[in-house]
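Journal club side-thread
Mid-discussion, someone asked how the predicted structure for our own chain would compare to the paper's figures. Pasting it here so we can look after the session.
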Amino acid sequence: MRLLKLDGQGEPKLTGDLLDTIPPYAILSHTWGYDRDEVNFDDLTYGSYKNTAGYAKIQFCGEQAKKDEIEYFWVDACCIDKANHSELSEAIVSMFDWYRNAVKCYVYLSDVTGSRINHHCTQCWWESDFRTSRWFRRGWTLQELLAPTSVEFSSREGELLGSKKTPKVLGEEHPVTISSVSNLALTMKGQGRNIEAVKLMSECVQLRNRVLGAEHPRTLFSSALLTEWQGAE
């Protein structure tokens, strides 16, 4: 695992590959843009990243970590050498643990504007944008929401919108939440984490049964998968 650290000029620099002792770190959750817009491992290594659109979220993560007195931070786009297939495979398998072990997870919502946030209003105008954000339609969303102890949501301006403990941020019966539960269960099953997968799919069945009804095709599909997985244990 490699981490990032801001140097004396506030620029992100990669550490070497850390094998034994991992210092406390913050971690970024985000949506990917086009490849040409993302800062990758080579960009960070050779310093060709400042004019890349994706640099804003890396800068945000580093500055927010500094405010929270966390020296190191991790961003998947540039901390993994994706040209190294064995490293990429290991990173995918380790991802849940990396998010779980982070001191804080910052969710950077590039499609949510919060520049006029009023923290005293009961129905903030940005909430509809929040709930329809692309971030909720990713396969990794639930893993990155559940694994870390602390998850904070920020707008593209870097303004804090709330945390996963903020009641209005996310409801467990939101359709995207339920789909994310199912996707995470399938991911865990593919990684051979059968006990965790069965537990999560069981939660998905209960949610879909409550929200959609026992006879809904999605409920029946999840129930069939759960029965199959339980029979294979």
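Post-session note: The mean pLDDT is 84.
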